[in-house]
Amino acid sequence: MTPLSRRAFGTAALASVLVGCGGGASESSASAPARRTRGTGGAAGSGERSAGSSANAARALGRSAPVRLRIPAIDVDTPLIRLGLEKDGTVEVPPITAHDRAGWYRHSPTPGEVGPSVVLGHVTVGEYGDGVFHDLSRLRKGDRIEARRQDGSTAVFAVSSVRTVAKAAFPSDDVYGDVDRPELRLITCGGPREGQEYRDNVIVFAVLSPSSP
């Protein structure tokens, strides 16, 4: 990441990550507090060894923005929009529309770069029904995730873990902590629904596969 991107990524993590659940037109996004840390927080979240400890580790890719995300196990094939920061320093979420799309947080590493690349999506989109990440919690270890990049390459990831956590106990260090290999975080809402809000967050941790170019 560039120095500006690193600062913006850190700013967002020090504020909060907003993951809109799309329960209704007037719904406010649900907040999940996050704290930027340095070290191996992300590696702890993924439950896998770091790149430096495995002879089979995938080689990191250069920076190239993602344009599409495919998750065959849950029939997801979505364009990726770019998300930035709101005026209050929180992360933008994709708009609630009939043609729901996931969004890549543009101040995080691009998929395939060293570090945790962050993608957000809705679980429901109000009157339009299911969101693009409606079935995210069904993913299992080893499931394939493909991020097509602007340079024509595809970063292929394997799910390492799927966690459903209370928003009040959002694992900031695990999600945003520095890691020494390319990783991916997919985030949406989940768990019991209370009015227009969901109680939990669903977080998918994934690591770059050696099969990536």
TrEMBL record:
InterPro entries: Sortase, Sortase_dom-sf, Sortase_F, TAT_signal. Gene3D superfamilies: Sortase. Transmembrane segments: none annotated. Residues 25-57 are annotated as: Disordered. Keywords: Hydrolase. It holds the Pfam family Sortase. It comes from the Bacteria. Residues 46-57 have a biased composition (Low complexity). This is Class F sortase. The lineage of its organism: Bacteria, Bacillati, Actinomycetota, Actinomycetes, Kitasatosporales.
